[in-house]
Write a structure and sequence with these properties.
This is DNA-3-methyladenine glycosylase II. The chain is mainly alpha-helical and about 220 residues long. It has 13 helices and two strands.
Length: about 220
């Protein structure tokens, strides 16, 4: 099964519900317009890519991923299991990441983690299954729930970008505990994932770090 591609636009009932529940989110949605995500790949490849990409730049991750695919032929449990630790390290994987990939392959091949049946589990149980894999933390599991399984009500509290974007959106005073999402995420239920996608897009399009408020960005866009 492949990852989910989101295509969100103003006429989407979920977007209308979000806008009605949180007027500032509605303003942001109107400012950004439609959003598309195009990640389409098998579940195993998606998780393997997440492990490869941890704590390195996007460019470095892409380069290492290409070398791993060139070595193994594809990102699949059987193909990766057939490679030696030495060859995987030569492709650019750290010793820790080789161990993580091995654990992922072993758990999938043994049936301990059935990626195709995660969809049958609720959010909490699916997350627990994913974090049982070495190298997969809560944030990576939450990203998989959103983009791999299409779960609609995930807000990753541990995502520093989302916290920053939530603070900007609602023009909040600085907090020493940095808990901005916790103040407002309840308004986005049951579509927290879609709110998250708009907040990430607000970062990607430069709104959050512009030094301007939401109102100023809207005014600027109108001229």
């Amino acid at each position: 099964m492949s990852s989910i591609a989101f295509h969100i636009h103003a006429d989407d009932p979920r977007v209308k519900s979000l806008s009605a529940a949180d007027s500032r989110m509605g303003t942001l949605i109107a400012l950004i317009g439609e959003v598309k995500t195009n990640t389409q790949e098998p579940h195993f490849a998606s998780i393997a890519r997440s492990i490869i990409s941890q704590q390195i730049s996007v460019k470095a991750a892409a380069s290492i991923r290409s070398r791993v695919i060139e070595l193994a032929g594809e990102l699949s449990p059987a193909a990766l299991s057939a490679q030696s630790d030495e060859d995987l390290r030569a492709a650019g994987l750290s010793t820790a990441k080789v161990a993580y990939i091995r654990d992922l392959c072993d758990k999938v091949l043994s049936g301990d983690v059935d990626l195709e049946r995660l969809q049958e589990l609720n959010d909490e149980d699916a997350t627990a299954k994913l974090v049982s894999i070495k190298g997969i933390g809560k944030w990576t599991a939450e990203m998989f729930l959103i983009f791999g399984l299409g779960r609609e009500n995930i807000v990753s509290i541990g995502d520093a970008g989302l916290q920053r974007a939530a603070r900007w959106l609602h023009n909040m005073e600085e907090r020493s505990d940095r808990k901005y999402l916790q103040q407002v995420a309840h308004m986005w239920e049951p579509y927290g994932s879609i709110a998250s996608i708009y907040l990430w897009e607000a970062i990607n399009t430069g709104h959050v770090d512009s030094g301007e408020t939401l109102e100023e960005r809207v005014s600027q866009a109108a001229h």
